[in-house]
């Protein structure tokens, strides 16, 4: 592939991944409201559990189906697999918006996660067309697409929710009966446009002659191997400890995902903030923008000055502080305090993620460990945290929301902070990187 074709392919791939992330983020502001409505119709009281199930189901589907899509792309090429994922997004987002029961919504959400499990294929596409010198920079495109998509998606999701209540144009239409269909249709339309773009502008990165040389194992065997490899890596001194640090950080961070909007949608009389879908969309847009600023513009300069180890520690503590403060935002004038809190959370996460990746990479090199194996283990334990976190958050919320004192609606957020403290003390046990290394103390 010529350099001009590579540049064009990367631009298209960037748009495809960004639109995927817009579709993922677009449901965040209204998911809690949607599940609340469906649960009320069915007489279900365990709202936290069902919200957690929707979130954990999506992550579990991505984790389970990633090996399948990766193995399939090795056999038939990257392009058709990426396009299949876009077709799945288009179909299942629409079905989700039309859902009339909790199980219908869960099934649509799970299948959307299954078909959206092809980010690994996008990374493989970049690996196919990149040399060792350009690999890191081009992989950074995936992170940039994530950031932009996660900023735009929640904002659109919030602004397009319940259109019949906001604009006369939608009165007496299907959007009266299905108030969250419009943002889902927006996600489907974006996926369709991305599919058309990929169809005409995205070339294949894996030539037919190279496909016979790749591992064509059964995806179930690949998944089994992932678990076995992860258990081996976790036993390596220092590297294993760092992987546990990442798992507890993600675990604590994703507990918040299940309970944040449950808290903000509560009326001020009950201790919440009384936020609408649009309000929550704007909050998540602030989180995304701050993450882009930290990871896109500041992290390089901060790393040179302070080192990745110090940034990692600060990131954990700052993020944990922000998560713990969420339920203590004053309900009478919440915006200023909440913006400060979510900036703490996104800044902490923005410092932690690249610093953690840099430290883990350096440790793998020092120990002579296979970098791919280490990163695979990190992804596996991270996926476990993303599944366990929402489930924990939802169950704790249901058990404590009506309590007072130490056991109340604030408990789940305090649990987030506790997990960050665990992550902080775990990383303190990791051997210090030698002086002179850019990630050292």
Question: Your description of this structure?
Answer:
This protein is an all-alpha fold and 441 residues long. The chain folds into two domains: 202 residues, Up-down Bundle (Growth Hormone, Chain: A), CATH 1.20.1250.20; 224 residues, Growth Hormone, Chain: A, CATH 1.20.1250.20. Helix content is 78%, strand content 0%. Helix 1 packs antiparallel against helix 6, helix 6 runs antiparallel to helix 7 and helix 12 runs parallel beside helix 14. The radius of gyration is 22 Å and the shape is globular. The protein starts with a helix and ends in a 13-residue tail after the last helix.
Question: Top keywords for this entry?
Answer:
mainly alpha, globular, Growth Hormone, Chain: A, disordered C terminus, 441 residues
Number of separate helices: 17
CATH superfamily annotation of the largest domain? MFS general substrate transporter like domains
Give the ordered list of helices and strands.
HHHHHHHHHHHHHHHHH
Could you estimate the helical fraction of the residues in percent? over 70%
Globally, the shape reads globular
- Count of beta strands: 0
Q: Major β-sheet, in short?
A: none
Uncertain runs with pLDDT below 50, 5 residues or more? Answer: 434-441
Distance between the termini: 42 Å
> What share of residues are in beta strands?
under 5%
Number of separate structural domains = 2
Name of the top-level CATH class of the largest domain: Mainly Alpha
Query: What is the CATH topology classification name of the largest domain?
Result: Growth Hormone, Chain: A
Cα-atom radius of gyration: 22 Å
Going by helix content, strand content and strand pairing, the class is mainly alpha
